[in-house]
## 1
Amino acid sequence: MAGRGKLIAVIGDEDTCTGFLLGGIGELNKNRKPNFLVVEKDTNINCGIFLARIDIGIILINQFIAEMIRHAIDAHMQSIPAVLEIPSKEHPYDASKDSILRRAKGMFSADDFR
């Protein structure tokens, strides 16, 4: 992957994935694996499929789906791929649930912002 960019992956509901695909993020790797996962009621959610890929730099995941696999997201400590939680049409974003934001807040004190 030297000299090449990394992909954005999306784990989300149908509306979220469709929006990002229309925006042009859809790709297949050399093994014909997509960089998106549409989560429905019966979908087995496995973020590990994207965490292990060296061609992915950012994973966008709907926050309500991230709650279903919170243990896996909290266990991910590498900076790449970055896992970012995003809102969905039916579920608004709640900053208190975002593990990355909680970790970032822990790195700074109130004096750092003065």
## 2
Amino acid sequence: MALILAGGRGSRLMQLTESQSKPAVPFGGKFRIIDFPLSNCMNSGIRRVGVATQYKAHTLIKHIQNGWGFLRAELHEFIEIWPAQQQTDDESWYSGTADAVYQNINIIKGHRPDYILVLAGDHIYKQDYSRLITHHVKSGADVTVSCVEVPVEEAKGFGVVDIDGDGNIISFVEKPETPPTMPGRSDMSLASMGIYVFNADFLYEHLCRDQQLADSSHDFGKDIVPYLVGRCKLMAHLFSDSCVICGTQTESYWRDVGTLDAYWEANIDLTHVIPSLDLYDNNWPIWTYQVQRPAAKFVFDSPSRRGAAVDSLVSAGCVVSGGIVERSLLFTDVRVNSYATVRDSVILPECDIGRSAYINKVVMAKNCRIPEGMVIGKDAADDARRFYRSEGGVTLVTPEMLEKLAAEEEAAQRR
């Protein structure tokens, strides 16, 4: 069975996660981040899934209940939500990834799995977990860690494994200044994806052992896996061996969209003629829940007022009414009004772009109402004063920021 750890806040996404956890953040026009590991489970034939939630989980729980309730209990299939319930003697919330599994250990044992697949709930990728599990079983491993190949310089921000020629993990280091490299590849390192396959009894034993340690953070990457190095058969699995590559894709795709810049970049990549991630492949669909809305609509066609979108993704329910959308991604129920321009931007659901507004390199949170004539994305200093501007030059706009700005302007007028 699989357990998806979906309780993380994702604080580096700034105000996008003020009211919801990172796995619930919308992605790609109609999906949420959690849909990717859930879809990978379904497509891999794994139909027993627990989703451990904690931080501001209402949006995530509602999404899973609405969109992922199609499995049949009488066939022992399920996607269950496992919120933090203070199930241990100290009545604590989940204190780490391993603790999240430990607190549900009795539920897991009740399903009597032979192998347990532990997944992160906050990455964008397509992976056939059945290949990963097959590799684990055939190798005779106690634990298998799924690893992605990354350039050495990028590896400094990950947990990095060092392997021998047979794929055995011989060391595991967290965010090393000098990352170990792959055998025969001095330019590449293996970063842990936060995906593990455990033999069930072996996992129970080491979760219980770790719980007795007062100085442990009860985390798989920081505590469990490093302890196991040299003490058991610990194998690395290359993501390239189980990544689903199809359609227009040419290489393995795995993204941690944990920063505003990374989130913007991964969404905007989907607008390219040949994106790095192919979402149009019917052989490995990404499933989700979506509201039933009419088709996107584009109106007005005169030289001065034309409703058009170029190199963009426009979701159901959108109305582009005499505005121009370029290299952007519009989620459900976005309206772009006359003479407005939206460029290189990610617009989340139910936003309204006022007449003659100019929006450039923006991530716009749900339910924003952009006033007529507002300009965002031309003056970096002005954007940073009014909103949040990232190091990569992406401006985040939220309804709360707009309300505060309107109140300040009203107060200034009264003075």
